[in-house]
Structure formats: C-alpha cells, structure tokens
Amino acid sequence: MTDQQILRRAYRQGARAEAAEATGQRIVDAFLAHLQNAWFEEITLDAVARDAGVTVQTIVRRFGSKQGLLEAVPERMRHKVLLRRGMSVGDIDRTVDLLIADYEETGDFLTRFLAQEERHPALRVVSDYGRAGHRQWLSESFAPWLDPLPERVRNTTLDALVVATDVYVWKLMRRDMRRSAAELKAIVTRMIDAALDAPATNHAQKN
Fold this sequence. Notes:
Radius of gyration: 22 Å
Mean pLDDT: 87
C-alpha cells in the first residue's frame, strides 16, 4: 500500500468516525428534547429516531435501548451545562447570573426529570451525576472562600451553597411564588452571602 493510499484510508476512517459521533450526539439530543416534554415511559425509540433523522435500528446498534440512551445522557448534559454556565471564579454576582440563566432555560426540564427518579431508578443515576457536577461547579466558583477553610467547615459551607442554589429554589420562586428573576437573584445572593459569611463568623468566635 502506498503512502497516498494509507493517507486516503486514514482520512476515510476519520471522516466515518466524525460522522458516527455527530449521529450519536444528534440521537442523544433528540432523546433529551423528548425528556423535556414527556415522561420517560412515554418516550419511544420510533419518536427519537424520527427526530434524529435515523432509523430505530441505528439507535439500537449504537445504544441498545432507552436504557442505553439514558446512560449517554449525563456526559451530554454536562457538556451543555458547562457551555451555558461557564465559570466565573470569585465573582458572586456573575455566578448567580449564570446559574439563573441556566435554570431559566432548563429549570422546568430538571424538575420534571427529578420528579421521575423514584419511579425509574435508572434516572437516579443521571440525577446523582448532575448533583455531583453542580457541587463541583460551586466548589470551583467559590474556591477563594472555600479553599482556606478546614475540611469539615468547607464541606458544611459547600452544603449550604448547594441548598442555596438548588433548582427547587428556582422553581419555588419563579413558578410557585411567581417572583421575578431579579427577586430570585436577590434571595439567592443573600443566601450565598450568609453561607460564606457564617464560617468566618464561627472562626472569629472560636478564636
């Protein structure tokens, strides 16, 4: 085989791999779109295949089943969340803006998703992955306050930040109480400030 033939073969293999990856992402995105508007048990592979522009056989070959599709969801969701939120280390105002913008786009989907995890244990795995990712995002965003703290205090402070920024806070204020995004931001910022200030106060009292 000549060098040119080797190069052409490598190019074709690379192009096929890229096309397969794009198809896989399109299928997972179609599945995610259905999850936003329907309960898990209502979603069919036929509907996902139609929206992704592929056959059911393609989905089965790539993912096996709805369970297999679900297993591909966490990484795809993580990628999308990071694109929406970005990272603004040490800037509370910007971090809250990014969080609320994310929830304004995904909050209804997330609360619908979480409401199903007790009925479908497989969904719990995805939810736990999301919770861990959210906690890590907070850990990095508030690192200037968290990193100097003793481990136990750091963990309890991070717990408080998780509670203050949970999607159910968004749902309570924006959907149940019908408050504005600005009012939500004021409350979330107030809770974050309290969570970050408490460890410093406690240390001062002990010393």
